[in-house]
């Protein structure tokens, strides 16, 4: 356990919520798990904090005054230094449309209030474990058609132009290209992209793929849907 905490010691998490009780609770448990935690109760000031500490992950409340979590996430995704940072949304909104909106603006995960603090810590572990593993084990460059994935720099270009992807979209695209020509099942993606062994809604995957295709534009046809099974990057463009 001490070795695990030692590995997490350099990993920084920013918790943004206008309720000090929430940030205090989350901070306490994440610090106990070995992470370095910074909290922000001022939504506007949180952006400067993010740029200052460059966190490895952001936990972000949605319903906040002055600047809500959706707006903050959009800003993060347009900042060159922050665009690849994973975001976990916390919110009292439980409708499917609200969850989809969170994913569409670049969120990587979504938890509804009241939430299980143990589950939140588990999800933080899962996301950081997969992003850390991606840096150490993936090839430095992947390409299909005019899509180029620079794994080391965490950058994607399409037809020579940069495309901004969330951490989950980046991992999803990389996994599909690595398996080019082979069908990747939704179950495989849940385990190897989301790193969850427990059941989550497969619509989460479909939402991310749809958003990814939109960002790939003219090269979106490389990603094929295999109905009832999963997805595949084609051997040749349709």
Could you explain the architecture of this structure?
The protein is an alpha/beta fold. It folds into two domains: 133 residues, 3-Layer(aba) Sandwich (Rossmann fold); 96 residues, Arc Repressor Mutant, subunit A (Orthogonal Bundle). Helices cover 44% and strands 21% of the residues. The chain has nine helices and twelve strands. It has a five-stranded parallel β-sheet, sandwiched between helices. The chain has a four-stranded antiparallel β-sheet with strand order 6-7-8-9, covered by helices on one side. Strands 10-12-11 form a three-stranded antiparallel β-sheet. Strand 1, helix 2 and strand 2 form a beta-alpha-beta unit. 35% of the residues are buried. The model has no long low-confidence stretch (mean pLDDT 86).
């Amino acid at each position: 356990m001490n070795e695990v905490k030692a590995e997490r010691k350099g990993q920084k998490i920013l918790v943004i919520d206008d309720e000090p009780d929430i940030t205090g609770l989350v901070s306490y448990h994440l610090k106990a798990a070995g992470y370095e935690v910074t909290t922000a109760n001022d939504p506007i000031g949180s952006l400067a904090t993010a740029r200052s500490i460059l966190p490895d992950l952001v936990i972000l409340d949605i319903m906040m005054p002055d600047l809500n979590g959706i707006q903050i996430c959009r800003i993060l995704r347009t900042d060159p230094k922050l665009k690849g940072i994973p975001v976990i949304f916390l919110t009292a909104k439980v409708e499917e449309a609200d969850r989809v909106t969170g994913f569409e603006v670049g969120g990587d995960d979504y938890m509804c209030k009241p939430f299980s603090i143990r589950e939140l810590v588990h999800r933080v572990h899962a996301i950081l474990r997969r992003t850390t593993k991606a840096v150490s084990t993936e090839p430095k460059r992947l390409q299909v058609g005019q899509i180029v994935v620079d794994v080391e720099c965490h950058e994607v270009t399409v037809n020579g132009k940069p495309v901004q992807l969330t951490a989950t979209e980046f991992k999803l695209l990389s996994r599909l290209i690595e398996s080019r020509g082979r069908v990747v099942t939704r179950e495989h993606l849940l385990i190897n992209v989301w790193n969850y062994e427990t059941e989550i809604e497969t619509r989460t995957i479909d939402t991310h793929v749809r958003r990814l295709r939109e960002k790939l534009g003219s090269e979106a046809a490389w990603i094929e849907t295999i109905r009832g099974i999963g997805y595949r990057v084609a051997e040749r463009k349709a």
